[in-house]
Write a structure and sequence with these properties.
The chain contains nine helices and 37 strands. The protein is α/β, with parallel strands linked by helices and 509 residues long. The radius of gyration is 24 Å and the shape is globular. Bound molecules: flavin-adenine dinucleotide and FE2/S2 (inorganic) cluster (FES).
């Protein structure tokens, strides 16, 4: 950032301590970098003001003890070390030493980066060989965390994808809309893996696990031995089973290859039909509208996303998309695709040069099933993310874990949960005994409107709406028996963070 683009006071010149109340925050700059000052009693911390995930403004975040949480997607940074202690941020923010004299605070030269997370002693000897099946959110976060924990043994990461681990949420948002270059999509550059001694093997299909000899078996017949194994095979899109679904312009969206194919088609398409009105379907609709393609959404629901966000927010989402030109065909489904025509159940027909099916995903549990792991609509894990078979853990979209907040065993398909589970699994593979207690969180983006959701409410008996949904300033509380199970919000970021803290504290009691 150039010096003339920074804002706030020059912190190298000093600011009056009195300007910063206890617990307060102030954003200024040191040279050409934005710096966040936080006062905690007599201590003052100075860290980079931009979140390392998507540059969320940490100055608008929430300070809890000696951490600051990002308002956008709830990453958390240690104010003393800058370390990213909670996903979705994985890289630290910079830190500056702070001096106080004559009633003023001065930010000095930026510290050299030394911080590495280290949980201290583990129980027993660390394993020699860790194998991770899956190069997605959970698998990547686990590998990255293992190295941050100074794990010295071997890490082999096996992925049947042809791309390095990517920022999957971007595939239905800015990248698909044409607003983000492809360089932004990988989570890390290729060099990261060799520099960190992570043996990432792409286009490798793991077909079975020999739990006795502790080896995974690849499609080419070779074996990879493990001392600890993390299964992070994620989920795959449910495929359309109607006549004509196998045509090349009928797509699903999970991988970078899927996304590139949709983008290629979108370059010449004039009209797209999106099947499904949940998160992926509607984000795809928004991205295609940004490309000025006519978009029709066909879905069996009466109101989009009603099951997750309730009827009022669902109705808002529908009208938001309608205002952007999306045409809905609700309480309807596609029954066949013939040439460029999508036939609807109600007898109607829609012309389309591109069809994207976002009709749900199913967890990829075949490997776990063949290995004899306990399954229940996903791979069953305990609070340590251990499966029913020794030395095998599971994380991400495939894992069903005991959620201490809802008191239920749940499985969700959220990016932040997958990453945080990968991180907890990493610690537990090293012999720590960390329970997975994070409050589930997801976000979804529709045009310029972000929807944040903390907690988990499959069913609720009361929905309390604070603010104005149509005015894009609201917080919805999903309650059961008087207890808040989840909170959805639009532009109420601090309250969303506060709700997360309350849920964490409730579960800890
Ligand atoms: C387009 C899109 C947008 C999304 N947007 C959001 C969002 O905005 N917010 C949000 O919270 N969530 C979002 N999600 C969901 C989020 O991406 C997932 O919850 C998350 O990726 C799950 O991580 P995972 O590691 O469990 O699985 P994945 O990321 O799917 O990774 C699974 C990995 O396992 C590999 N694999 C599977 N089987 C095998 C095998 N047998 N052998 C070798 N490798 C194998 C796959 O190739 C892949 O690398 C989105 C998902 C998609 C598809
Ligand atoms: S921008 Fe901070 S968590 Fe995403």
């Amino acid at each position: 950032m150039a010096q003339d683009q920074v804002s706030g006071p020059d912190l190298a010149q000093g600011v009056a301590l009195a300007e910063l109340a206890d617990g307060g925050k102030l954003v200024g700059h040191a040279g050409d970098e934005q710096v966040l000052l936080v006062r905690r009693g007599t201590e003052v911390f100075a860290v980079g003001a931009d979140c390392t995930h998507y540059h969320g403004p940490l100055g608008d975040g929430l300070v809890i003890d000696d951490t600051v949480r990002c308002p956008w997607h709830h990453a958390c940074f240690n104010l003393r070390t800058g370390e990213a202690v909670r996903a979705p941020a994985l890289s630290p923010v910079a830190c500056w030493p702070v001096e106080q004299h004559d009633g003023k605070i001065f930010v000095r030269e930026k510290r050299e980066r030394s911080a590495m997370l280290h949980h201290g002693k583990t129980q027993g000897k660390a394993p020699d060989k860790i194998v991770i099946v899956g190069g997605g959110a959970a698998g990547f976060a686990a590998a990255e965390r293992l190295r941050r924990e100074r794990y010295q043994g071997s890490i082999v990461m096996l992925s049947n994808d042809d791309a390095w681990p990517i920022d999957r949420p971007n595939l239905s948002k800015d990248y698909l809309a044409g607003n983000a270059p492809e360089e932004w999509v990988p989570l890390r550059p290729e060099s990261f893996y060799s520099e960190n001694g992570i043996e990432l093997r792409l286009k490798v299909n793991v077909i079975s696990i020999d739990v006795r000899s502790r080896e995974v078996v690849l499609a080419n017949g070779s074996q990879v031995p493990y001392d600890r194994l993390l299964l992070a095979t994620g989920a795959e899109p449910v495929r359309l089973s109607i006549p004509g679904a196998d045509q090349p312009y009928v797509r699903t969206l999970r991988t970078l290859t899927d996304c590139r194919a949709i983008i290629e088609r979108a370059k010449t398409a004039r009209r797209a039909v999106v099947l499904g009105a949940s998160f992926i379907g509607l984000e795809v609709a928004a991205a295609l509208r940004t490309r000025s393609i006519e978009v029709h959404v066909v879905a069996p629901d009466k109101t989009p996303m009603e099951r997750i966000l309730g009827p009022q927010m669902g109705d808002f989402v529908r009208s938001l998309h309608a205002d952007h030109g999306v045409v809905f065909h609700l309480e309807n489904t596609a029954s066949a695709i013939d040439g460029k025509q999508v036939t609807l159940k109600d007898g109607g027909a829609l012309e389309a040069d591109l069809v994207v099916a976002g009709i749900g995903v199913r967890p990829r549990t075949e490997l776990a099933e063949r290995a004899g792991l306990t399954l229940d609509r996903g791979v069953v894990v305990n609070a340590y993310l251990e499966t029913s078979v020794p030395a095998i853990l599971a994380a991400g979209d495939i894992a069903r874990w005991p959620d201490p907040h809802s008191g239920e065993s749940i499985r969700v398909e959220h990016w932040v949960v997958a990453e945080r589970q990968g991180q907890t699994a990493a610690l537990n593979m090293l012999g720590h005994r960390e329970t997975f207690t994070a409050v589930p969180f997801f976000w979804s983006q529709h045009y310029d409107i972000p929807i944040n959701y903390v907690g988990h409410a499959e069913k609720w008996d009361e929905l309390v709406i604070d603010g104005d949904i149509a005015g894009k300033d609201c917080l919805l509380r999903f309650k059961r028996n008087g207890r808040v199970l989840a909170v959805a919000s639009i532009f109420r970021d601090v309250e969303s963070l506060q709700a997360e803290v309350v849920m964490e504290r409730d579960a800890a009691v």
